[in-house]
């Protein structure tokens, strides 16, 4: 049995990736609609070997459609997600709008797939922040073995996390540093991103942290365990695609690095590449286009009793956004919608 699937925001980076992944993973689609804002109506997008023309999100009737993958930002989602949900179409939302709503499940399928049943309250499921998604995939199997007390994470986040404008700005600034007359001042980012790093993602909050850092704290607690203490520093780096994270973990009991390595080798969604030699680790360039969350540099932290350090890398447009949304759709189809139709 197939499903009638909608992708809203189909002309953006994440929307296009959603269409690619639906096709790559052979999601059972009977009918598919690609939606965009009025200014992009008629734009052609690819779905496997098919070419779709985008339809108008504003006038689209969601009645009779099963699943809608939203990649349109919080403002538009606030208007259109309830419309779709009320029409009986389950919304899987990539924005931050519903992530902290207690009546909306926040899902990373490798971590808390059982929470999917909570979608019934609003007919909406939330997709987590890109930096959170890859981290919790690494944390959950370790937490199951030796309960995590505290996480200290520093992120190295690619410009694609800021959308097409972020990618364009890095490209334009890099060219401008070499070609006279093509200098490009910051507009999407607060400072020059080419050949630079910026310790600032999203808006600043009263306590001095940024909203991106707060998201990692709140979402890890909601997805994995509310008792875990998390502190984050989120940094934008001049990488086009792929987020990296240096994660320090403190456990309630000792976990040997060798055992941790074996646990992670068998964990869902994880690939361990951890050789103590030149190049024996994964970098963002190597993870682009891959479904996995890669883990390297697994080692004991001798400065605390029960500490471990790991390096986590993933394609943020995939696991951090589009892939996770499609995986949620798979869970929804396998566990819920088929049951309802049976």
What do you see in this structure?
This protein is α/β, with parallel strands linked by helices and 342 residues long. Helix content is 32%, strand content 24%. It contains nine helices and 14 strands. The protein folds into two domains: 3-128 and 321-341, NAD(P)-binding Rossmann-like Domain (Rossmann fold), CATH 3.40.50.720; 131-316, Dihydrodipicolinate Reductase, domain 2. The model has no long low-confidence stretch (mean pLDDT 96).
End-to-end C-alpha gap? 11 Å
**Separate helix tally:** 9
Fill in the CATH topology of the largest domain. Dihydrodipicolinate Reductase, domain 2
Order of helices and strands: EHEEEEEHEHEHEHHEEHEHEEH
Mean model confidence by pLDDT = 96
Neighbour order of strands in the largest sheet? 5-2-1-6-7-8
How many structural domains in the coordinates? 2
Radius of gyration from CA coordinates: 20 Å
What's the level 1 CATH class of the largest domain? Alpha Beta
CATH architectural type of the largest domain: 2-Layer Sandwich
Major sheet details:
6 strands, parallel
The proportion of residues forming helix, as a percent range, comes to 25-40%
Category from helices, strands and their pairing = alpha/beta
Overall number of strands: 14
Low-confidence stretches: none
Range of strand content? 15-25%
